[in-house]
Amino acid sequence: MAELKLNAVEKTYGNGFKAVHGIDLHVAEGEFMVLVGPSGCAKSTTLRMIAGLETITGGEVRIGDQVVNDLVPGKRGIAMVFQNYALYPHMKVRQNLSFGLRLKRKPKEQIERSTAEVSGVLEIEELLDRLPKQLSGGQAQRVAVGRALIKQPEVFLFDEPLSNLDAKLRASMRVRITDLHKRLRNEGRPATVVYVTHDQVEAMTMGDRICVMKDGHIMQVADPTTLYDRPANAFVAGFIGMPEMNLVPAVLSGEYGAQTLTLDGQTLTVGPGLAPRLSHGPGPVTLGVRPQHLDLVVADSPDALTGTITNLEFMGHEVNLHAKVGDAVFVCVVPSDQFDRNLQRGDRVGLKPRVEKLHVFDAETGENFSLA
ABC transporter domain: from which residue to which, for each copy (predicted)? Predict the structure, then answer.
């Protein structure tokens, strides 16, 4: 396996549209890196440039010690798993798995040994003599992963491989893929992985680190805990987390140590939980607070925002309470066993933020000024 480096990589199409804007990314040997972002953010384009399926128009792609800009995909030492599996319909699973080795004219004994090993790792031994049309979606996806694994590439590339599966099967395959990655690492065969998804649950549960992208730019690269607790900007804060972070306009007033946040006529004291981290002067800001960091209290309570319930979503183990505070709507997550079942739409409630968990973003740039 090898490390992967993107240095100032750009992609501009013939019509002048710039899809990727000089991005830098380092994926360490054996690391599981996830590229995540909304549709159109260029995460798949970036993956295809790594694979050699898209030409780059600036910068360099380096796998190990080699710049691979001008190499065809077959010479880059990569293996790719696609969204649609891309299995050969006329070949049985055994032949699909071994196709890459047979193409390289590897010895028959090696092919048989590798096929047996990979099918055992992925628990698909009983499928070896089936055609792709006889497989379920999950089985076909395991075969596609096996076909990549058997090649022992420098870098594995996954392009939204689970998007065609139902929710239960996606959850199962997430576990299988991450367990496989850990197993290879423990066996001294670390697999360098770049995995593209639009699903933040996949990103947060699978990645060693996550690269959040927007409009061809990298917004932040960090481990899942850091992205959740210390988002670099309002975009990352709103994209990572379910339900998404509450982001509302506010005004920061006062001097350091005695600052307040005002929104729609209601005021919160910054207090010692946030003040030491705050590096923004008075003026318009965007206040950020996760639904899990709002406590439901009585309306008009001190240091709480008072609003009117607009919707209640019963999720089983918790309730998502939507409340309108002025022109803004906040979501508050309440554990089911702590929720007052007498509450209903139209009732007034208080939402008390855990001040130490508040985030303050620049109103124009979106930069997080509460990370100091």
Answer: 4-240
- Of 200, 197, 190, 288, the closest CA to residue 245 belongs to 288
- Structural domain boundaries, residue 53: 4-235
Whether residues 22 and 100 share a domain: the answer is yes
pLDDT in tens, 326-348: 999 999 999 999 999 999 999 99
Length in residues, the chain: 372
What is d(CA 35, CA 161) in angstroms, rounded to the nearest whole number?
13
Of 288, 284, 283, 279, the closest CA to residue 256 belongs to: 279
Cα(358)–Cα(372) distance, integer angstroms? 13
Asked whether 317 and 335 are in contact (CB, 8 A), the reply is: yes
- Nearest Cα neighbor of 366 from 192, 213, 191, 233 is 233
Please give the DSSP secondary-structure letter assigned to residue 116.
H
In a domain, 84, yes or no: yes
Q: 69-113: per-residue pLDDT in tens?
A: 999 998 999 999 988 878 899 999 999 999 988 988 889 999 999
CA–CA distance, 103 with 32 (Å, rounded to integer)? 28
pTM of the model: 0.91
Residue 21's Cβ-count burial label (10 Å; 0-12, 13-18, 19+) is: middle
- With beta carbons less than 8 A apart as the criterion, state whether 350 and 301 touch: yes
**Same-domain pairing of 181 and 311:** no
Helices (H) and strands (E) in the chain, counts: 9, 20
3-state helix, strand, coil in the chain (%, to 5): 30, 35, 35
Phi, psi of 363 (to 5 degrees): -65, -25
| pLDDT(316) > 70 | yes
The number of beta carbons lying within 10 Å of the beta carbon of residue 160 is 19
Structure tokens at 271: 């207090």
CATH number at residue 171: 3.40.50.300
